[in-house]
Write a structure and sequence with these properties.
The chain is built from 18 helices and 14 strands. 52% of the residues lie in helices and 18% in strands. By secondary structure, it is of the alpha+beta class. The longest helix has 50 residues.
Length: 505
Amino acid sequence: MEEGMNLGQLVNVSQGIILGFDVTMHIVFASREARDVFGSKDALIGVSYTRIFPKLVEKNITIKELVMAGDNGARTSAYRMNGTCFDVEVYTRKFSDPDYALENGYLSLKDQSDEESLFRLNGIAYMMRIVDVDDYASLNKKIETATLENEELKANNYEFVAKLTHELRTPVNGIKGQITSMKDDANLTEDQKNKLRMSYKSCENMSGIINDILDFSKIGSEGFTLEYGKFSIREVVGRVIAMSEKMIGAKDLKIYYGVNEDVPDELYGDERRFEQILNNFISNAVKYTDDGFARLDVTLVEKNNRDVLLKVTVTDTGIGIAKEDVVRIFDSYYRVSSAVAKKEGTGLGLAITKNLVEKMDGKVHVDSEIGKGSIFSATVRLRLDEEQKEEKEEVANNKRDMKLASVPREMLNIPPWGSVKSRNKLKGYMDKLLMCIELGSWEFAENFATKIKNYSYEAPKELQKPVFDMLMAVRRGNYDQAIEKYLGCLELLNNTEAGLMEEGR
């Protein structure tokens, strides 16, 4: 024969514990693993099926029944050549009646387009895959353990990143605050003002890096969810363009934008994340474009009774991207070479954008050429008007608050307002609330915000309203609003506590 494979070679490449039987139910084929488990190849070839599976024979389970069991298999015991046995599951497949035999110990590869023809040439009528139950259970246990350890590691990594970024934000925001208070000082020289502006810009860059790292960690965690609410597409686009105009600075660059008339203005989705996608695309275009223009367009791809699919396209006349970089531009931490490597950033912006787009049932794409600019695009799916759903949720929240307010304070075990115990409890709940907001654990955050509201039941009226507003912001799951309300409440609580301590309470 022109080309062939020795039967021994076929045995060696077969994976798992596999036995092949002829029409008389004697072994004519044994994989390497089968030889290791049952005995040598020579000891196996010619052995009867009844010798390997006597318990199936005792139970009068026929080969036909084994074949019909298919993927369900059959549970039994398999006996080795030394007389010992082990629990197995047997999966059986029948081939056409073999009408070919080996010729000089070789089988032809000519016209071997399927597995069945290959085995028919070996005289194999039935093929059995045998699974050692103990090995299988052990493997499943290892996989389960590894999966749990991996999930725990991911959770720990995310918590660590969240805590770290929170700790980094505090000094950066402190520095920005100091610079803000100093920059309008009339006694500063122009050189000092420039240095303050550079310092403030560095703080903003640092804040951007911190946010990128936290976002990337959060999006990669199992607990990440989009925060749904109604928003105006055109307002979001307007804000993005306004921010882009500030970024341009001294660049000889123009910014254009357009939202097609058929795009509904009010849609339901995650406004902050949608804006982040637009910002990442347009800021990337402005960063790498020194002459010409950058343009943002939003068009309608499809619309049904429930939602719309929008396409966001950002075109620029910048330096462009090499072919070898285009295929990896959305990879995490990937930075393109040479000219753009000098630009600041983490290499996470586009990776985050890709993840966010995919969370919105969309896809990202880029067309680019060195020296000729780039076209970044993404599709996102947003829902149509869901005002009724929001109203129902608001009614449910109000009912829950009314129900809670009707419970006597004594039954909630809340200490009197202004007492040491009350102040300590509030401080603890405020600390835990901040951590939950930073981690994006909105369910736990709402729990602590509700406790703070309960503990503030007898607080001065000027404090009760901000506490309620903070609870509402937490319920909406909006990070920026929640932090803003939190800081306002924290200041009021600190002022109130200072007043109480002066009174000696």
